């Protein structure tokens, strides 16, 4: 792909900020494909290559593609910490519970088997805090870079369902919709 390759609207946000949810809604309502940075990062790590999470990588991506819109989901870290640390898993089945909105019938116990639930290492409070700090340190220069280029649009809030209508309205001015019936509802 040369420098004329056309990309891309990018969605940036901390782990747990709702990037996946917003991205899937974007692909439902607009003629765009979803490439998850997490999936791309894991794939690139397997192949020993890199993915844009730093300023140098963002600049390299910009040389290969035309980035015309970057959506930044600005969700307070305390909200993200609550979301991620509320997640508990039944390891044998992969069932996921969330203490806030999908709790098990008995705290710490799988509803179907009665076996104990575990919290992933990534979801433990001390790990979440480290992940969010690393995200902030790495991403601040990337956001500043896209801001200077005039392609960054930031949406702030605490709930994806409340942020989404604003993202949707913004993208309506930039991207063709997949159908006339597409709407703001999730």
From TrEMBL:
Pfam hit, one: ADK
Alphabetically ordered keywords of this record: Kinase, Nucleotide-binding, Transferase
UniProt-listed InterPro entries: Adenylat/UMP-CMP_kin, Adenylate_kinase_lid-dom, ADK_active_lid_dom_sf, P-loop_NTPase
Domain Adenylate kinase active site lid per the UniProt entry, residue ranges: 87-122
GO molecular function term, any single one: ATP binding
Domain of life: Eukaryota
Keyword flag Nucleotide-binding: yes
Family: Belongs to the adenylate kinase family.
PANTHER family in UniProt: NUCLEOTIDE KINASE
Protein name: Adenylate kinase 3
Source species of the chain: Macaca fascicularis (Crab-eating macaque)
Designated gene of the protein: AK3
